[in-house]
Amino acid sequence: MAMTTSNLRDLLRSEHARDNLQAWRWNVRRELAPLRDRLVHERLSRREAWLSARAARAVQERDQLLARLNHLASQVLVTSDVDALASELSRLVADIDRHDQRVRDLAYDDVELEIGGSE
Asked: Which of 11, 76, 97, 113 makes a 20 to 30 Å CA pair with 47?
């Protein structure tokens, strides 16, 4: 996910939007597509009982992130306030990175449970 978001982070810097606004809009829109695909195809498998609440929360969080991403993606080509949009997209990318870390933590906890943990 880091490679997916690094290009987008570069585009969201304010100096890029000033050069050629239409090209910036299309490039941002193009970079959002793999990010969306990654979230849509994210696998959150069935967990043990003590992990199920965390897994359910991760699914709910993913759905909220997808809704935000879809809304902001639709605004990229039409909004007049590009700086505010870039700011919102930067927050979204940071939230997606945190979500990705939570999913990796869940996978680690799941594997630790299968192996037997530290006890």
From this structure: 97
As a whole number, the mean pLDDT across the chain is 82
Domain of 103 in residue numbering reads as 2-115
CA distance 78 to 95: 23
Q: Out of 13-22, 58-67, 100-109, pick the least confident.
A: 13-22
Which two tokens mark 110? 């799941």
CA neighbor of 102 nearest in space, from 69, 32, 53: 53
Burial of 92 by CB count in 10 Å (0-12 exposed, 13-18 middle, 19+ buried)?
buried
pLDDT, residue 2, reads 52
What is the total count of domains within the chain? 1
| Separation CA 109–CA 82 (nearest Å) | 40
In our burial notation (b when 16+ CB lie closer than 10 A, e otherwise), range 38-69 reads: ebeebeeeebeeebeeebeebeebbeebbebb
- Burial of residue 110 (CB within 10 Å: 0-12, 13-18, 19+) is middle
